[in-house]
Amino acid sequence: MEYSALLQLYKDRFNSEPRVFRSPGRINIIGEHTDYNDGFVLPAGIDKEICMVMGVNFSDTFNLYSVDKKECVSFTIDTYREVSAGWAKYIIGVIDQLVQMEIAIGGFDCVFQGDIPLGAGLSSSAALECATLFGLKHLFNVELSKKEIALIAQRAENQYVGVNCGIMDQFASVFAAEGQALKLDCRDLSYELYPLEMQGYQLVLVDSLVSHNLASSEYNVRRAECEEALAILQQKHPHFLALRDASIEDLEAQKDEFRPVVYKRAKYMIEEIARVGKACQAMTSNDLPELGSLLYATHAGLQHEFEISCKELDFLVDFTRDKEEILGSRMMGGGFGGCTINLVKDDFVEDFELSVSKAYEAAYGKAPAIYRVKTSSGSSEITASLLING
User: Fold this and answer.
1) What's the mean pLDDT when you consider all of the chain?
2) Which residues are designated catalytic?
3) Main-chain dihedrals φ then ψ at residue 102, nearest 5 degrees
4) What is the average pLDDT across 347-369?
5) Percent of the chain with pLDDT over 70
6) Distance from C-alpha of 289 to C-alpha of 309, rounded to nearest angstrom
7) Three-class SS string for the chain?
8) Are strands 201-211 and 180-185 parallel, antiparallel or unpaired?
9) Which residues lie across from 182 on neighbouring strands?
10) Whole-model pTM above 0.90?
């Protein structure tokens, strides 16, 4: 991100001295759909981010300019609900939450830009919400902890934007640390950091560029199926609060009581929650081959048991299986489209990118988008030295 160019754009537009804030997108190493079962997730911040140049304007007007959309919106506390621009709703949703909390902020000017690919499941919306909140905290001296920022950002997306997301995206955007993955307990929001030492490998995302429009409706179905499984288990284990509390042995003991499809969903979920712990052990031991095998195991579960993959994602994962330079691959995200995450040896990355692009285009008529990502720290203010060098 060229911070200095963005800063100059702000000065040209608003003719004042601002401050600069950023928040990253995220990947999820492992732990898919575990959040609404009180499980664990293992996200990491990435070196793709939203950057916001913000300044107090000592009025009651908010002026937002999106560099990527080349669009400006202006509003006040009394008129923000009239704004129709979709991108602005993520920022306005944050302001709306602060209004509800009776936290006083004044008018501000903002120019922002992002290099997080849209639609790839890398949480550009969470990065925008968290960068906004982090900036407002510092511009107006608002007392907000990192945890409060994540929770307010989540509520903004749930209640104002209308997307029923979990807490992982916002939490990862705020708390991420370079060179580490974050094991988040979705029950109590406690977390631990684990070293993600790449040791001659890179994380490469391959975007299928497809969306089968099933993710939203099937998400609700999967939640209901997990709730049905829990209700059955609670007949013998009334203390279970979520599938996170069950073991495979608990599930097998009551297998005959489940509809076959609900049994499959529960089996995937219980095993996936356990895989997060195994992945943390692998990272602690610097055992990348084990981490890679866990990625493949997760994809198998998502494909055959949770059934939220699609032929394009399966093609991309299967393409990697006979290549010793690739330790693991899986679909990432809500399902039915989006990216695969791949653990690829450094000196094979270019060959992989060329070969997978050619194969995918031959199969589906279009080349995938490919992103190399590194880990990054969470929400922060950009210092003067970085602005000069940027």
Assistant:
1) 95
2) 169
3) 60, 40
4) 98
5) 98
6) 23
7) CCHHHHHHHHHHHHCCCCEEEEEEEEEECCCCCCHHHCCEECEEEEEEEEEEEEEECCCCEEEEEECCCCEEEEEECCCHHHCCCCCHHHHHHHHHHHHHCCCCCCCEEEEEEECCCCCCCCCHHHHHHHHHHHHHHHHCCCCCCHHHHHHHHHHHHHHHHCCCCCCHHHHHHHHCCCCEEEEEECCCCCEEEEECCCCCEEEEEEEEEEECCCHHHHHHHHHHHHHHHHHHHHCCCCCCCCHHHCCHHHHHHCHHHCCHHHHHHHHHHHHHHHHHHHHHHHHHCCCHHHHHHHHHHHHHHHHHCCCCCCHHHHHHHHHHCCCCCEEEEEEECCCCEEEEEEEEEHHHHHHHHHHHHHHHHHHHCCCCEEEEECECCCCEECCHHHHHHC
8) unpaired
9) 193
10) yes
Q: What are phi and psi of 11, to 5 degrees?
A: -60, -40
**Which position has the token pair 């099937």?**
218
Q: What is the CA radius of gyration of the chain?
A: 22
Give the residues across from 50 on adjacent strands. Answer: 23, 114
